[in-house]
Amino acid sequence: MGHLLVNYYETGAIILFGVGFVTLLAHGNLIKKIIGMNIMDTAVFLFFIAKGYITGNEAPIIRSAKSASGYVNPIPTALMLTGIVVAVSITAFALALTIRIYENYGTIDLNEIMKMGGE
User: Three-state SS across the chain?
Assistant: First the structure.
């Protein structure tokens, strides 16, 4: 239990991922599924950024001659910025598909669409 409290960012990321996963699986509404997917994305971003941060070190902005060990590793942050751009793009695409599904079926509930036969 002590490790969970010490690593509270990682613990929060895991809980957030679980909330997003349950939201994605438990709901038939497409908008709620997209929200669940975004919560899971956010959890992954939080986890990697928390793992990349080193307490006591500075952001990797060079202001003076300092050894490289005094800076936070910039790679996780750069990767997560790329991940955020990809997540926003996927969200926009999923919302566009949801609009098309609504125009064709008149609903965004997957259970109702399945009852219609998914034509």
Answer: CHHHHHCHHHHHHHHHHHHHHHHHHHCCEHHHHHHHHHHHHHHHHHHHHHHHCCCCCECCCCCCCCCHHHECCHHHHHHHHHHHHHHHHHHHHHHHHHHHHHHHHCCCEHHHHHHCCCC
